[in-house]
């Protein structure tokens, strides 16, 4: 293979005992089964932008892609839980009351629990990243008897970053999450090996870097950085609204799709370029990947290799970003 480095559109996601990859051949999952064999499945992917051109326009496609990624990510994550045997483990460790509920309501109960969990997750995210930073800023502004309005976007943005870092640092200490982060590392290393034009072997992948600029972690950090700039400008344009907590949060929600769109366009740009601008904005996300990725073991690397081999062509140049 050529030793030239290639910028490809191949990307993926860590799963429970597995990796999901998307590439020229579609979307596939590689999951380690309880019998230690690696199971590979292809999944149908439908993009709304393929049906409606409007949703494929710059800035618009960022929000659409985020929603689609969340849906696909959740589905493949649940699929991996089933294939890896985690659901069987959960059933074996059910209490008598949990078994009764499962037998009585079955899939209906699971659907209800999933819906409630999703609502609570969105509510928690809103509270942590929308309400709490605004509340802290208002209290800080009142306690200091100073007009910090010019720094509102900066202060709230720094608080969001701090909350995000602390949250990831805490969950990364959980054993199950740590193992998922090892698969995350295998995903990145496999892509890096392929983009470097090296043969996809455990030895070659092991030597590659586990940090990648197109990672979802980098996307989140880019969004946080852009949010600081945009919300600072918005607070200056609408100073009276910025002082009213509810209206300010609603205004921030209205600008959220724009920030997602800008973040998505930057990640696409970063996938094609390697200049100083990209390096500066990508640096926080790459640093954060020290928490969201872990060095994988050889058996986990094997899963990452199986996943990427399922979606790529024989020649990396054919998969390059156009």
Strand order of the largest sheet: 1-2-3-4
Strand content: 5-15%
In angstroms, what separates the terminal alpha carbons?
21 Å
**Helix-strand makeup class:** alpha+beta
Give the biggest beta sheet: 4 strands, antiparallel
* Alpha carbon gyration radius: 22 Å
The helix content is 55-70%
N to C succession of SSEs = EEEEHHHHHHHHHHHHH
Structural description of this entry:
With 322 residues, the chain is of the alpha+beta class. The protein is 66% helix and 7% strand. The protein has 13 helices and 4 strands. The chain has a 4-stranded antiparallel sheet. It is globular and about 65 Å long. The mean pLDDT is 84.
In short:
The chain is of the alpha+beta class. It is 66% helix and 7% strand. The chain is built from 13 helices and 4 strands.
Topology:
Blueprint lengths: L10 E5 L2 E6 L2 E7 L5 E6 L4 H4 L8 H24 L2 H7 L3 H10 L1 H37 L8 H20 L3 H21 L6 H6 L8 H22 L1 H4 L2 H28 L3 H17 L5 H12 L13
Antiparallel strand pairs: 1-2, 2-3, 3-4
Helix pairs in contact: 2-11, 5-6, 5-11, 6-9, 7-13, 9-11, 9-12
Keywords:
single chain, 4-stranded antiparallel β-sheet, 322 residues, globular, alpha+beta, 7% strand, 13 helices, 4 strands
């Amino acid at each position: 293979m050529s030793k030239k480095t290639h910028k490809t559109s191949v990307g993926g996601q860590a799963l429970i005992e597995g990796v999901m990859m998307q590439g020229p051949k579609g979307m596939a999952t590689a999951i380690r089964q309880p019998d230690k064999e690696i199971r590979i499945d292809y999944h149908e992917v439908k993009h709304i932008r393929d049906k409606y051109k409007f949703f494929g326009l710059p800035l618009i496609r960022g929000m659409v892609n985020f929603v689609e990624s969340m849906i696909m990510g959740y589905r493949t994550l649940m699929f991996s839980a089933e294939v890896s045997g985690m659901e069987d483990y959960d059933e074996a460790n059910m209490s008598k009351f949990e078994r009764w509920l499962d037998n009585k309501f079955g899939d209906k109960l699971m659907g209800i629990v999933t819906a409630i969990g999703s609502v609570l997750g969105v509510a928690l995210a809103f509270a942590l990243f929308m309400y709490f930073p605004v509340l802290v800023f208002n209290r800080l502004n009142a306690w200091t008897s100073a007009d910090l309005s010019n720094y509102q976007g900066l202060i709230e943005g720094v608080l969001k970053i701090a909350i995000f870092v602390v949250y990831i640092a805490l969950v990364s200490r959980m054993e199950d999450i740590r193992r998922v982060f090892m698969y995350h590392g295998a995903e990145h290393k496999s892509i890096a090996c392929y983009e470097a034009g090296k043969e996809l072997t455990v030895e070659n992948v092991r030597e590659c870097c586990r940090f990648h600029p197109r990672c979802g972690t980098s996307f989140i950090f880019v969004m946080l950085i852009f949010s600081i700039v945009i919300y600072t400008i918005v607070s200056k344009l609408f100073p009276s609204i910025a002082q009213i907590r509810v209206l300010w949060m609603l205004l921030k929600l209205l600008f959220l799709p724009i920030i997602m769109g800008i973040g998505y366009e930057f990640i696409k740009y970063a996938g094609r370029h390697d200049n100083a601008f990209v390096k500066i904005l990508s640096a926080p996300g790459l640093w954060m990947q020290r928490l969201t990725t872990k060095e994988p073991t050889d058996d986990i690397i094997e899963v990452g290799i199986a996943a990427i081999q399922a979606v790529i062509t024989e020649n990396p140049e054919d998969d390059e970003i156009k």
